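Follow-up to my post from last week.
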Amino acid sequence: MALIHVNQVTKQFRKGAETITPLKEAELQIERGQFVSLMGASGTGKSTLLNLIAGIDKPTSGRIIVDGTDITRLSRTKLAAWRARNIGYIFQTHNLIPVLTAYENIELPLMLLPMNRSERRRRVEVALTAVDLVDRANHYPRQLSGGQEQRVGIARAIVTDPTVVVADEPTGDLDTETSAQILELLERLNDELDTTLLMVTHDPDAAAIAERRLKLDHGRLIEHAQAAAPAVHAGAS
Amino acid sequence: MFKFAPYLLKTLWRHRTRTLLTVSGSAVALFVFCFVLTVRQGLQRLTQQDDSVLIVFQANKFCPATSHLPQDYDQVISRMPGVRDVVPIQVFTNNCRASLDVVVFYGAPAEKVRRVRDFELIDGSWGEFESHQDAAIVGQALASRRGIQVGERFSVGDVTVAVAGLFTSQNRAEEDYVYCHLDFLQRTRGLDLVGTVTQHEVWLEDSANPEQAAAAIDEKLKSGQIETDTRTKGAFQASSLADLIHLIDLSRYLGWACLFLMAVLLATTTIMTVEDRIGEHAVLQTLGFSTRHVFRLVMSETVLLSVVGGCVGIALAVLALSQSALSVGAEAVTIAFEPSWDMVLTAALTSLVIGLIAGIAPAARAAKADIVTALRFSG
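User reply:
Got it. Predicted complex:
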């Protein structure tokens, strides 16, 4: 069975008098360990789909099953606990907590899990090593470059060893060279740790590193390798 | 929640000017609240004093300067059933009206002062007091306020006494009085009041009923030279302080207003903080923090500000009250501004409750914010 199963998911919201439907009866399956990129123009609903899979948004209808759990049926409290255990989220603008050091930012999601301090320290050190930032552990976000901040964001996303890591435009705020480093890091995490990755991006070069590429185009989600065969039905009103 | 304490403290430190201003505002509010509380507690202590002591005063007189009872009433009263001791007292005060600096002289037989009061001399000697006609012992609070020392002469108006000792008492209000010899106070000021006193203080047996004893005394002296009005000491002091009681009663509104202002200040600061960090809270919730976690974090911040501000205000109030030895008095009865553990605990608990009340709305707002919408704010 697929790790992620998006089943007939529709998302609607109101904008003034207008009803927007960024996703309509969407279908998607992602296997464990896959690195999937999702492209599309602004407003086509790719971030909406990402947020639905990450459990920070709820669909209007349909079901999303992640690793056997139907997350659309979870209460807000249970969904939060589920996110803590199963989701690593990489933001476009890093979104590090400014008053905490790199180490403390990475440790933050671990504090929600039943884990003692020494185990937390061990995991943070592993994550810092993975993103090559051991020497920046005690630096605050304002003391880091954009690329370093994003690497801390990635370390924070993987430190809990989540079921799925989702990345919303992870290179959107970075220059070309730093973007390449971040993409290489994500690719390495997928290869070495077998992390299931779903990345939303505008950048075709960034999307190209994923083993599976999806594109939202005029309301339809298309597999890059199988342009003729839509993997997902999606639509905008 | 303790594991998030570093995050909490660093967040407050990051906005240290705002934190400092909020803590200062809370401290000032609690400082005033402590003063109000102290005055009210001082009044309560005076008016709820032991019922086993009665004050016999001249009927229809309210100021000690106008009450003149025959001194020999003490002989009549002391023979009545249930009476353990009678102390004739001449009172002189520099100000019968409400004042923050009332000096009250109590003239009483020296041996009786020592017997019926719980005074502990912290300087000077009883012997010196008992052996000199113009000697007096002075309460520690008054001595501290006026800079009085043993061996000095102390004058108020026409009355000048030689300070033979300084005393402390379990009843802090007593520390605002000067005790001197009865006949000295009867003869001083160019007057000859020998044979008359302002009041008689009647100490009852434990088994005596205060109301019945008071009624019996008034009944017995009804046919005497001067009609009397006898009440328990608590009721007598409440009556003397009647005007002040109304003012003190009004002061509770000042106390409530301070607490209300403190709650508004804390709530405003917390709402500003929540609005500044709407994106940050959304990030926390994306990481797996529940609405309850965010609610508690915001509540903890508000409570911490409130309690720290409260503790600073309480500490300053205790310091100011204990150092200033302030009191307010009227009709020769004074209310001591004495800090107490009861006041400290009440004020500390109040600051905690104010923090909880002020934090609820902002914390709920932060916790219930839609994550996706809030993330858009964070850029």
